[in-house]
Design brief:
The protein has 3 domains: about 5-110, no CATH class; about 125-325, Nucleotidyltransferase, domain 5 (2-Layer Sandwich); about 345-540, Carbamoyltransferase, C-terminal domain (DHBP synthase). The chain is built from 20 helices and 16 strands. The relative contact order is 0.11. The chain has about 550 residues and is of the alpha/beta class. Helix content is about 40%, strand content about 15%.
Length: about 550
C-alpha cells in the first residue's frame, strides 16, 4: 500500500455518507502519477446480490403488514429498484461515476463486505495464523463473522446474519440516549464508565435479548434503528432522551449496561472459538471494533495471547481489505503506521503563509521550542507530513496540550473542541515508557485500545485519564514510527519529566480532521489554539 485517503478529508463533509469518492480516487491517481486507464482492476467491497437474503423476508413482512397501502407500495418500489440494481446493473452507477474521472475503465470486481473486513484485519496483522472477528452493523446479509486466517487465506467458522446485529443494537441505544446512530457510539462508550451496572436496566434488556455464543438481539434490531428505539422505550418504560443537557444517573447506567452486554457477547464468542481451535491470536475489524473498551476486555482474556485491531476498522478500511484479497496473506506487509495520505511541501506552506501575510518563524530547535510552549500551558496545532488514514490523529494532524492537569483538559474541551466536558482525551506516550504508566501494557500505536493507568502515575497525567475509571486510550510512539513526533514528546519529557502529551484530532466539533495547511490555518484562527506548527514553521496569535 502506497497511498490512501478518505473522501471526507477532501470534500470536507464528515463521514462523506453516500458521496462517490471522486476526490480521493483522483488523489490516489495523482500520487502515483497514473490515470484510470493504467489501473488493472477495481475491487468493490460489497456484493449487491447477497442482500437478497435480507430483502426477501422483509418483502414478505411488508406485504402482510398493517401499514397503509401507499406506504407498502413505496417500499415495494424501493425493493424492485434495489433488485434491478443488484442483478441487472450491479456496477452501472460506479461506472457512470468513474467516467467523470476517465473514459477507459478497468475491469470491476466485487468482494463480500465482511470478507474485506477480515482481510483488512488478518493480512497486515503480522500473524501467521489467527482468529479473525469482524463485527459491524451490516454488510450484505452478515453482521458478525468468525474466521480462521492462515497462509492459505480466510475460512468462515461462524456467521451471524442481519438483523441479529451488535452494531445496530449499540446504535439503537446510542439513538435512544440522544446521539446519532453510526456516529455517536464512541460517546456512549465514553459515558459508560460514569454509570453503574443497574440491575433493573440489565434485567429489562436481558428479557429481550440473548447473550453468549448464540446471542440474539433481533427483538431490538429487526426493523431498523428507529423501531429499535421504540422497542427500548417500551422495554425500559421511559422515552428517548431529547435533551442536550447533563445525562441523568439512569442514562449513564444504561450506557454502562449496554457496554457490559456488548463485551459479554464478544468475549464469550472469542473464548469459545479460541477453545475450539487452539488459536490464541485474534484480529478484529468492522465498525464495532473501534470500541476500545471492548478491545481491552479481549486483550485481557487469559485465553488470548495477542490481539491486532485494524486501525481503520470502520467501512473506510474496506478498501484495504478489498485490495489485500488480491494477494496471499504472507505477501502483505505488517502495518506499523497509518501515514498514507497527502503531504505538503515546505516551500508551498511558506508561500501560503506569505501570501496571507501571516507572521511566522522557523526555529532551529523546533521540537524543543514547541515542547516549551506546551509545558507553559499553550495549546498547539501540530501539522506534519502525510495525513493519517482512519479516525485517529496520530501525531501528524493533532492538537497537543499538557497532559498533567485537569485544567488543560477542560480548556481543550471548552475552547478548542467545543464538546461535552465529561468526554475524556487520549495521550501519546513514548513506547518505552508505557510499562511504567500502564498496567498490563502492550504496543498500542493506533490509539484503539484502553489500559488501566498505574495509580502512582495517575496524578501526572490527569488530563488524559478517564475520570470515572482511571483508564486511558494511548498511542504508543516509537522513533521508527514517527521520528519528529517522538522527538517532541522526548523534549517535553526532558522539561517536565512526563513522556506524554495530550493528543486530540486537529478539527473543530463536527468537522473532518484537517488535511491541508489552509484548513489548519482556518481552524487555528477560529479555535482557541495558541500556537500552530506547519511543518518547520511556527505561527503564534500574539
Amino acid at each position: 500500500m502506497v497511498f490512501a485517503i478518505e473522501e471526507e478529508r477532501l470534500n470536507r463533509r464528515k463521514h462523506a455518507v453516500d458521496d462517490f469518492p471522486h476526490k480521493s480516487i483522483n488523489a490516489c491517481l495523482n500520487y502515483c502519477d497514473i490515470s484510470l486507464s493504467d489501473v488493472d482492476k477495481i475491487v468493490l467491497p460489497y456484493v449487491p446480490s447477497l442482500e437478497s437474503k435480507i430483502w426477501l423476508p422483509e418483502l414478505k413482512r411488508r406485504l402482510f403488514s398493517s401499514k397503509s397501502t401507499p406506504e407498502r407500495l413505496r417500499w415495494i418500489e424501493r425493493y424492485l429498484e434495489h433488485r434491478a440494481q443488484a442483478h441487472i446493473l450491479p456496477t452501472s452507477k460506479v461506472k457512470s461515476e468513474l467516467r467523470q474521472i476517465g473514459d477507459s475503465l478497468p475491469p470491476i470486481d466485487n468482494q463480500p463486505h465482511h470478507r474485506c473486513h477480515a482481510a483488512s484485519a488478518f493480512h497486515p496483522s503480522g500473524f501467521d495464523e489467527a482468529l479473525v472477528f469482524t463485527v459491524d452493523g451490516k454488510g450484505e446479509h452478515d453482521s458478525t463473522v468468525v474466521w480462521h486466517g492462515d497462509e492459505q487465506g480466510l475460512e468462515r467458522l461462524r456467521t451471524y446474519t442481519f438483523p441479529n446485529s451488535l452494531g445496530h443494537f449499540y446504535g439503537a441505544v446510542t439513538e435512544y440516549l440522544g446521539y446519532r446512530a453510526f456516529n455517536g457510539e464512541g460517546k456512549i462508550m465514553g459515558l459508560a464508565p460514569y454509570g453503574e451496572l443497574n440491575e433493573k436496566i440489565e434485567t429489562s434488556l436481558r428479557s429481550a435479548i440473548e447473550t453468549g455464543v448464540d446471542y440474539d438481539v433481533t427483538s431490538i434490531t429487526e426493523h431498523g434503528i428507529e423501531d429499535g428505539v421504540a422497542q427500548l422505550e417500551r422495554l425500559l418504560g421511559r422515552p428517548r432522551n431529547t435533551s442536550r443537557g447533563e445525562f441523568t444517573d439512569w442514562q449513564k447506567d444504561l450506557a454502562r449496561v449496554t457496554q457490559h452486554l456488548l463485551e459479554e457477547i464478544v468475549t464469550g464468542i472469542i473464548k469459545q472459538y479460541v477453545n475450539e481451535t487452539g488459536i490464541r491470536t485474534v484480529t478484529l475489524s468492522g465498525g464495532v471494533a473501534l470500541n476500545c473498551k471492548m478491545n481491552k476486555e479481549i486483550r485481557e482474556l487469559d485465553a488470548v495471547n495477542d490481539v491486532f485491531v485494524q486501525p481503520v476498522s470502520h467501512d473506510a478500511g474496506l478498501a484495504l481489505g478489498a485490495g489485500f484479497l488480491e494477494s496471499s496473506p504472507e505477501t502483505v506487509y505488517q502495518i506499523t503506521d497509518v501515514y498514507y495520505g497527502q503531504a505538503h511541501n515546505t516551500e508551498v506552506i511558506k508561500s501560503i503563509l506569505e501570501t496571507n501575510k501571516i507572521d511566522y518563524t522557523r526555529p532551529t530547535q523546533l521540537t524543543q521550542r514547541v515542547a516549551e510552549e506546551i509545558a507553559n500551558g499553550q495549546l498547539v496545532g501540530w501539522f506534519q507530513g502525510r495525513t493519517e488514514l482512519g479516525p485517529r490523529a496520530l501525531g501528524n494532524r493533532s492538537i497537543l496540550a499538557d497532559p498533567r492537569t485537569k485544567a488543560s483538559r477542560d480548556r481543550v474541551n471548552r475552547f478548542v473542541k467545543h464538546r461535552e466536558e465529561w468526554r475524556p482525551f487520549a495521550p501519546s506516550i513514548l513506547a518505552d515508557a508505557a510499562e511504567s504508566y500502564f498496567e498490563n501494557p502492550a504496543p498500542s500505536p493506533f490509539m484503539i485500545d484502553t489500559f488501566q493507568v498505574r495509580p502512582e502515575r495517575a496524578s501526572e497525567i490527569e488530563a488524559v485519564l478517564h475520570p470515572a475509571d482511571g483508564t486511558t486510550r494511548p498511542q504508543t510512539v516509537s522513533k521508527q514510527q514517527n521520528p519528529k513526533y517522538y522527538q517532541l514528546i522526548s523534549d517535553f519529557a526532558d522539561i517536565t519529566g512526563v513522556p506524554v502529551l495530550l493528543n486530540t484530532s486537529f478539527n473543530d466539533h463536527g468537522e473532518p480532521i484537517v488535511n491541508t495547511p489552509t484548513e489548519a490555518l482556518k481552524d487555528f484562527f477560529g479555535m482557541g489554539l495558541d500556537v500552530l506548527v506547519l511543518d518547520e514553521y511556527l505561527v503564534t496569535k500574539s
